[in-house]
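job 3f2a | input accepted
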Amino acid sequence: GASMNSSADSGGEMEVDSNKQEIFQRKKNAVLVNGVILNGPITDSKAGEKFVEEACKIIMEEVIRKAADVTEKVCEWQPPEKLKKLLDLEMRDTGEPHQRLLQLCQDIIRYSVKTNHPRFFNQLYAGIDYYSLVARFITEALNPSVYTYEVSPVFLLVEEAVLKRMIEFIGWKEGDGIFNPGGSVSNMYAMNLARYKYCPDIKEKGLSGLPRLVLFTSEECHYSMNKAASFLGIGTQNVYFITTDERGKMIPEELEKQVQRARKEGAAPFLVCATAGTTVLGAFDPLDKIADICEKHGLWLHVDASWGGSALMSRKHRKLLHGIHRADSVAWNPHKMLMAGIQCCALLVKDNSDLLKKCYSAKASYLFQQDKFYDVSYDTGDKSIQCSRRPDAFKFWMTWKALGTTGLEDRVNRALALARYLVDEIKKREGFQLLLEPEYANICFWYIPSSLRKMEEGPEFWEKLHQVAPVIKERMMKKGSMMLGYQPHRGKVNFFRQVVISPQVSREDMDFLLDEIDLLGRDL
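job 3f2a | predicted structure (524 res):
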């Protein structure tokens, strides 16, 4: 192919002739099997390349160039039944022409939520990072699977380099780790790992002869703790939830009591899951005190820092995670605050005795042959419960290369400074009320329309206030001006949760957020 292209400029007509001859030869020498011609490629690669080029133009114009433009809508809301009609989802017997497909690409982008938009505040991820985006383009084009060095040499080395640096930021001298499809999966890995450490026999003998295993986590923890316990056969009744204080932090004295209670019941405590950056309130459990209790009782300490882990990059804010170096395992998602693109989630393990591999390996002989011609210690796929696995570390590596550690630190500092600014603005404005003083980038507040401002805070007031956020949310979605999440939580009526992440977000966006809520809700 290459030699032909290089001479193509001079011999355009010759090439056309030789192409014709080639096609003629192919037909003459056709090999038929079961009515299928097997000669030559079946796809037209030139047309395919052209399609990719055209589609890339659309992505550039409609997604990337518009990402930082606040005048664009965050979403063009359509109800499901209408959207089904608009999108033409039917898959037919005959293929459709490229022009039609390019139009579909336009439609898909048009009706999707623009998570890159500076005013998308709805989840714990947002914004566009150009470097991780290019990394994603590369991996999508190369289509690698990270299990062995032979099939994925570059991405295995990248993952190793990234894990090594993340381990340093936790404060461990050495360790192990793996990238997973989601923080929920990292938490599940950690739970299984802690159980394997407690009773290694379980891998082969299963659950039958085991005592009743119990784990402890705060009542503010992520719902994946319950899912992991049910998935692993531990049972959700054996997840003991520890009371939190008014700021959402686990109370160590309560943990101590519950561990004692489980022992008295004849159960076997094996794991404590602390949270560094809870989903709703952004609370950080007191890791040092929790680690003391774990050491005293010989329990595995896992820290779910999926959301809060990124504060480790900031010298100013890493004190939020004081004591994290005492954890046995940590979940940390660079796709959140550090914007590495969904998904990018690491589980890091302090152990250096190959515990991950011992716990998960199945020694598939068709992948992990021990007599290969290179160092097979680089074939890390057996540490995973997956077979095919995406090279997620590469996205984070590319961003880290581009920004450096100081650039990542600036991102964290800027997000938390903007959060501070918003908190101060909320305190100044009539009709806005903070739930609590935040420690991180989650700002939880009520908007109180003027009709409720004179009312005393009794049951009727709270019942009416509960109805305010959903109406404002509906109005903002239909207008497309921004997206912001709300929820009820632990006996508190519906409130907004604003999360600051993206470096494209400015002070003006914070002001807009409050003005827009007031505009959308003042008549309520």
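job 3f2a | The longest strand covers residues 268-275.
job 3f2a | closed
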